[in-house]
Write the structure tokens for this entry.
Amino acid sequence: MDLSKYTIKIDYSTGVKITLWDNHNKENKFKVRIYIQKTHTQHKLLYNYNSGGSKWIEEECVNAKEFRIPWCELEIKSGMWHTIPYKGFVPYRMEVVDFSTDEVILNEVFDVRNKLVNFYLHSNNPETIHTWMCVIEKFKEENNCQISIINNYLKSNQKYDFVDSYWGEEENFIRYYAGYGIGRFGTENVPNFQCNPDGIKGKNDLEIIEDILYHYTKRI
């Protein structure tokens, strides 16, 4: 298959934007199948012993099986683009199919490892920010990624060593692989489910960021 005839751009910086070109046939169309990539891990408990005869229980991984949950299916004409407006973290997997040949021309797995992930923190309350930063540090450890922060308060008070770069809101920093806005969007009665997937009513600061980063990973 000659993949040089295609130009494919997938941008995760705010939601997802997919742009597709057939450089030889501008009338061609593509089918895009988007999934949530999940891993099911089985564990078993076993005893372990030391030389003094003491024993304790450990957990051992038996196997890990990957599977996919369908998210949506799109039809995109060459030279056109499509956006998915949902702003939270989703472990996407995508297949792009050429309509004219019915061949899969791209298997894309969203992967933040060793890449820069940006967080735009929509608060200047130090207590709220500290709660969110603790979760972001955990996110960095879990995903082995780099972290940038957009927040005016933290730009002036750079006290978190795990952050790779700080930016002010006016600096228009956009050079990152994936980006997430952390905050309370909309109102309690009319929430923005594209930004807060479980709403904001009655949520504390920890629940707000956990919804944004883990709603489509740990809750499915």
Q: What stands out?
A: The chain has two domains: 3-46+67-109, 116-214. Helices lie at 126-143, 152-156, 205-214. The chain has a mean pLDDT of 88. The longest helix spans residues 126-143.
